[in-house]
């Protein structure tokens, strides 16, 4: 049976801001099987490897939310170190192949390019250990931007205090929070820029409105930069999203 996670201790999740643009790299591991995925190893692969070693994790997949240099810089090194397949959306392959140009734009040395081992698209699942996360294609920041959604564990009974729960009856069942790895599509209080190659403001708004805001309010959001947030908080207070 596949786990979603009702309890945070059912999952290892380490967030490591890497490189000078401080891209949030996530290591998401199953404490039972010791299998993990790594999202957006943009740089500082040695530090990512330290986290993997500390938890005794084997990497099953390296998932890339989009092919901007700050998110893909360490793909090759991490692939060479772990043997895990590198996965991204086909619509960002062109951007990935232009890594040299991206490096020139921001005056960075060109990282070694990886072979992309698998292509992800809307509705695919990425599996590791007892977990499975859903791929949501969210074009707009780049054409192949994607988010990875690890859903909540269905419904879980919780004892609530208040009307209708006298004599210790079980309260209403409550859905625990899922997790969304949002790349540069959604940030706490902002959204991804759309003025770079392949960007589209109309598309990012459509991705946000029809796909990300369709998720439950409690969903924890881990953006590609900056602090974590929730769908509900962004729905209410993000100037790009609140009505
Ligand atoms: Zn980006
Ligand atoms: Zn970024």
Give the overall pLDDT as a whole number. 89
Structural class, from helix and strand content? alpha/beta
How many separate domains make up the residues? 1
Low-confidence stretches: 1-7, 155-175
Which small molecules are bound?
Answer: zinc ion
**What is the overall shape?**
globular
Widest sheet: strand ordering = 1-2-3-4-5-6
Report on this structure.
- The structure is a single chain.
- It contains 7 helices and 16 strands.
- The protein has 243 residues and is of the alpha/beta class.
- The chain has one domain: Ribonuclease Z/Hydroxyacylglutathione hydrolase-like (Metallo-beta-lactamase, Chain A, 4-Layer Sandwich).
- Strands 1-2-3-4-5-6 form a 6-stranded mixed β-sheet. Strands 7-8-9-12-15-16 form a 6-stranded mixed β-sheet.
- The longest helix is centred in the last third of the chain and has 12 residues.
- Bound molecules: zinc ion (2 copies).
